[in-house]
Design goal:
The complex is a heterotrimer of chains A (264), B (278) and C (252).
Chain A: E1 3-5, H1 12-34, H2 46-58, H3 67-98, H4 100-113, H5 122-129, H6 133-157, H7 161-169, H8 174-211, H9 217-226, H10 230-263
Helix pairs in contact in A: 2-10, 3-4, 3-6, 3-8, 3-9, 5-6, 6-8, 7-8, 8-9, 8-10, 9-10
Chain B: E1 2-5, E2 8-11, H1 21-25, H2 28-48, H3 57-69, H4 77-108, H5 110-123, H6 132-139, H7 143-167, H8 171-179, H9 184-221, H10 227-236, H11 240-268
Antiparallel strand pairs in B: 1-2
Chain C: E1 5-16, E2 20-32, E3 37-41, H1 48-56, E4 63-68, E5 71-72, E6 80-83, H2 95-99, H3 101-105, H4 110-123, H5 139-152, E7 157-161, H6 169-185, E8 189-194, H7 197-203, E9 206-210, E10 218-223, H8 235-247
Parallel strand pairs in C: 3-8, 3-9, 6-7, 7-8
Antiparallel strand pairs in C: 1-2, 1-4, 4-5, 9-10
Chain lengths: 264, 278, 252
């Protein structure tokens, strides 16, 4: 038999290097703060951050909410806006890709709004929605919708022209070609937008919360600055990082499963 | 135009169709114009009716024209646009100068990769905007703190794209150089770098849009100049035409930046000119 | 006369996807004479590409050795030029840029480089396309560039790895004629790998067939004494074709 299974050992030194590098990173960080090389008003040591993390799990002071409440608020905003972005962005992009009239109507507006960074909407949002959840949802939604629209649009455009011609020779209507051919063939591109959009959403969520919020991880970071508590700033940043990574993993799993679903 | 080699022909032709009323009405470009003006008219009536706290498009335009000559906090509109642009250019230059070589090195060398990657992965999921607060703690509210955020914001996509740009190169392309008698250094100079160039530019373009978000956030939080400051100023004075004018100015300048970036790409990657853009 | 290339008992075992061991070649021994056009004929998945890559020096055999002019091959070198199945053109360089790359690597000055490259661009019939980028060319034209690139480096041995596998039948026949013409203009020792019997008989001085399953093993060697240029409908041609087909289990 030509194929046999064998076990090959991965060279361990690369893993070792990675672990050493991480240990060195945290070690140096702890050291430069503990030894006073960087003043404590500017940076907190990892150990301080851990201590604050445990404390903030149960205590609402001094910023008004527990860590769980902040995280829940951010997650709620992000997920709401993300889902809304999918609901609006994907059909918009699909229709823009296939129907010339839809493209003609929406493209100029889309192109006018696209270059404006979502953060720039904050003053209008505060005016329209106050500093509650919907203002932030609006900003995150604006950020998240762009990749979905573009990818759906490109996805439809990438439909194999031979397939479209084949469908036409069988007498399929425009609408049938769109729903039976273009939409399925655009799916991989749309799934590709899941990650990109998420990254945009998460970035702009932090921005929105820094500027107009009374709860949320971004607000936690900003309060840390105002209260001159670097450990709270770092804690907020770490939570934002972990939160982003967690949602990223979930979306990645989802994307792989969806893609496997079409390939079958 | 037609050229041929033996049995193979390369032909370039242009297609022409006659104009009819129906085709004009459903013509994409005609609809673009209709859509654009409808948008302005709807905006005008909403604003004129005093809904949503908007200023009319003409008031916004008038305000923008006024700001071109009148100074606001010592700078006219161009001055503020330059203040924002300057921050982006400096921050981006530093971020790219650090990020692109690092990403390339990570792609080319396994040892560097296994040392840098884990630490880089810690920072990767952290949005650059999250650095604003700590940046103010470190650098105060002056220019350096704003530039620092843009450095962070452009650094990450630059590293990522340079790294993946190297990684997606077909290893057989290196074989070409080896078979022709080239050494490792030549593999890097004649294959790795040029083949990774489009990916580098993708990174630059992403960095650019991240940088605009960053600079705005930084200016909204604390500043005395820049387009973000104009917006905040408009909000504080409840002058919606100032807010909308600021947004429009940002859109124009950010768009100019992306045009410049893709123009530069066309110059530096001439082989991409003929490939149909998506 | 000593053979130009000599393969002695070459075997190759790959580790695939980190845990699959694949036996690709087993006990391959062959000799190629000076300026001979040798064709290695085998179906897909018979290890022919690996054999060629070993001769090129891009892979090391698990056991056995390759000798060129009596010296053992330890790595790729300028004396052996390789033409890739999937062209492997540098998409960021023009036709001229691709053809002159080998000379550039060796530091030949620009004027000389251009002159030599132009000669080979003309030889493969691509004059007028020097400033085109690969994506602007058809498949057949791309492979012409690939051949010119290998030739311009002036190797003593040309290794061609299913160079026309991705072309349509018409273009393929045409390119076979071109290959013969180019080879007769500038004689080299050639090893040409293919899975196409007609192509093999049309081009080869000698044909080596491989068995159709991994690991690849030598099956038979045929001499092709037909005069050039050959005709596909020639009686001798058809007879030889029948003989090879009968003997091997090649699926046509």
């Amino acid at each position: 038999m030509a194929y046999e299974e064998v076990k090959v050992k991965e060279p361990i030194r690369f893993k070792l290097l990675s672990i050493m590098s991480l240990l060195a990173f945290f070690g140096i960080w702890e050291f430069i703060v503990d030894a006073g090389i960087v003043p404590r008003t500017m940076l907190a040591a990892p150990s301080q951050v851990v201590v604050l993390f445990i404390k903030k799990l149960t205590q609402a002071n001094p910023d008004g909410a527990t860590l769980g409440a902040h995280a829940w608020m951010s997650a709620k905003e992000a997920v709401t806006a993300y889902v809304l972005a999918i609901i609006v962005g994907v059909p918009l992009g699909l229709f823009m890709g296939w129907f010339k009239v839809v493209r003609g109507i929406f493209r100029p507006i889309f192109e006018m709004i696209r270059p404006i960074p979502p953060i720039a909407w904050i003053p209008l949002c505060i005016f329209w929605f106050g500093i509650g959840i919907w203002g932030k949802v609006y900003i995150i939604w604006i950020a998240g919708i762009v990749p979905f629209t573009i990818n759906s649009w490109v996805g439809v455009n990438m439909t194999d022209p031979a397939l479209i011609q084949m469908a036409r020779t069988y007498g399929a209507t425009d609408w049938q070609i769109f729903t039976k051919l273009c939409v399925p063939s655009a799916l991989p591109m749309i799934f590709g937008a899941l990650q990109i959009s998420l990254a945009y959403c998460w970035t702009n969520l932090v921005g929105a919360e820094l500027l107009a919020a009374d709860k949320g991880l971004g607000f936690l970071i900003e309060m840390g600055r105002r209260l001159a508590m670097p450990e709270m700033v770092v804690l907020g940043m770490v939570c934002v990082g972990i939160g982003g990574a967690l949602i990223g993993v979930v979306v990645d799993k989802l994307e792989k499963r969806l893609l496997a679903g079409i390939r079958r | 135009m037609e050229r041929s080699v033996a049995n193979e022909v390369v032909k370039h032709v242009k297609e022409k169709k006659p104009w009819t009323v129906g085709r004009v009405l459903t013509n994409e470009y005609f609809l673009y114009v209709v859509s654009f003006f409808t948008f302005l008219i709807v905006w005008h009536y909403i604003a004129a009716a005093g809904l949503l706290g908007l200023a009319t498009p003409e008031a916004t335009l008038k305000e923008m024209v006024r700001l071109m000559s009148v100074r606001l906090a010592g700078k006219n509109l161009f001055g503020h646009a330059w203040a924002s642009s300057r921050r982006i250019i400096i921050g981006f230059a530093i971020g790219a100068a650090a990020g692109l070589p690092l990403g390339l090195l990570m792609g080319l060398n396994k040892y560097i990769n296994s040392i840098v990657k884990p630490v880089f992965d810690l920072f990767k999921p952290m949005p650059p905007i999250a650095w604003i607060s700590i940046s103010i703690l470190w650098f105060g509210i002056g220019e350096p703190s704003k530039i620092f955020i843009i450095v962070i914001g452009s650094f990450v996509p630059c590293v990522l794209n340079a790294y993946s740009g190297i990684r997606i190169i077909d290893p057989e392309l290196y074989d070409v150089i080896r078979v022709l008698g080239g050494n490792r250094r030549q593999e890097i100079f004649y294959v790795s770098f040029p083949a990774a160039l489009p990916a580098l530019f993708a990174g630059v373009q992403i960095s650019m849009s991240v940088a605009w978000t960053c600079v705005l956030a930084a200016e909204l939080v604390s500043s005395r100049s820049g387009l973000g400051w104009i917006i905040i100023r408009g909000m504080k004075l409840t002058k919606p035409e100032l807010v909308l004018g600021g947004m429009a100015a940002i859109a124009v300048v950010a768009w100019l930046f992306s045009v410049a970036a893709s123009g530069l790409e066309k110059v530096l990657c001439p082989w991409k000119r003929g490939i149909k853009e998506l | 006369m000593n053979p130009k290339i000599e393969c002695r008992n070459i075997s190759k075992v790959f580790i695939q996807k980190g845990k699959q061991r694949v036996h690709v070649l087993e006990d391959i021994s062959l000799e190629v004479m000076h300026n001979e056009f040798l064709v290695i004929l085998g179906p897909g998945q018979s290890g022919k590409t690996t054999l060629l890559r070993i001769i090129a020096g891009l892979e090391t055999p698990t056991s056995g050795q390759v000798l060129v002019d009596g010296k053992e091959v330890t790595g790729p070198g300028q004396d052996r030029g390789l033409v890739f199945q999937s062209y492997m053109l540098f998409f960021w360089r023009t036709v001229m840029g691709n053809v002159e790359i080998g000379l550039k690597l060796r530091g030949v000055d620009k004027k000389k480089r251009r002159e030599i490259a132009q000669h080979y661009i003309n030889l493969v019939g691509l004059q007028g396309f020097e400033k085109h980028y690969p994506h602007q060319l058809s498949g057949g034209m791309k492979q012409r560039v690939g051949i010119a690139r290998a030739y311009a480096n002036n190797p003593e041995i040309m290794l061609l790895d299913e160079p026309f596998g991705q072309l349509d039948a018409q273009t393929r026949m045409f390119m076979e004629k071109e290959t013969e013409r180019i080879w007769q203009t500038e004689k080299k020792t050639v090893i040409f790998v293919t899975n196409n019997i007609d192509e093999a008989i049309y081009l080869g001085d000698r044909i080596v067939t491989l068995k159709d399953k991994l690991p690849g093993r030598m099956d038979a060697i045929y001499d092709v004494p037909l005069p050039r240029p050959r005709e596909h409908t020639d009686l001798e041609f058809v007879k030889l074709r029948q003989e090879i087909t009968d003997r091997s289990e090649l699926v046509l």
